[in-house]
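cron nightly-structures :: item 1 of 1
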Amino acid sequence: MSKDVISKADQVMAATYKRTPIVIAKGKGCVLWDTDGRAYTDFVSGVAVCNLGHAHPRVVRALSMQADTLFHVSNLFYTIPQTELASWLVENSFADRVFFCNSGAEANEAAIKLARKHFKEKGEAERYKIITMEKSFHGRTMATLSATGQGKIRKGFDPVLDGFDFVPFNDADALRDKIGPSTCAVLLEPIQGEGGIRCPAPGYFESLRQICDEAGILLILDEIQTGIGRTGKLFAYENFGIEPDIMTLAKALANGLPIGAMLAREHIADAFGPGSHGSTFGGTPIITAASLEVLRTLSEEKIIDNCREMGAYLKDKLLLLKEKYDVIEDVRGIGLLLGMRLKTEGSPFVTACMEKGFLINCIQDNILRFIPPLIVGRDEIDRLVECLDDVMRET
């Protein structure tokens, strides 16, 4: 059956992904099954999306109840689930206002537009440029790929949009030097996910906040991958003792259902008046009902606490492997957003782990990324590390 599905998909779908040749049919908790009935322990979680694992009963229940009540009415009307979700996010973050959309790229588009609009409303129309980081990733729309500091993402889509300057991540002096009279904001990920699990140096974010305040520009954090508990805090900025002016969320916000959100302070969000921005499917009742239950579950079942504990446990285990195998150059990350940099290509290790029943992935050619559901336990981690040990010994 799987061969038939793969063959048909390759005939009818755009070839924009390099897919693993298995067909996933079912998931429960931290386990996925393919159409041939084989089980895989999931350390990818839909690329940091399924933080509660697969088919979590509370989310399934919330989704089913809302599906039986109201799917969609458009943003021309108020709905209870959307209002409750926005209220929860405001109450648990720095922000005063929330805009809902469908994806991380759309959330970043909204942040880019809001930053420009904010300064135009202030009478500073010359401020439109945004400084982003080398090796960053912010999406694949024309604006967000223009903001992305990776040439391979922009390749083939020239000319990209004007208005973005790039500086090295972790270099506060370079950022300060790049700010000019046309700069309106700094946009960055708290931890560069697709860029290789690159973490900020101590004091880096405190310096960024101070630099932005002194220059009178906005600090925008792309928490698409790091938000919703992934780093052991609800939002990654909480690890670094600062607050942004604008923040974007998506991925894990509804545990696999399509939603994005842009959060902002009141005096900035005021620039978005009626008709200035919108999204047909942004924040529909069925998606926001599920998302609200995701957030309540994370909080009430202390799953973020589990992320911190299991993240430290997994990192310690990976560091022990580093001591054992010279092929491992570095282990880095926070919470359950961890990377293992190799001295060789990583894809053979991904394939070998898959053949042994574990799903991981590789970024930047040589960095194995471990982003399991936040409900993962010691047993799954021990078995993964045993698998990695076997693979490295055999390679």
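cron nightly-structures :: done
The longest strand covers residues 328-334.
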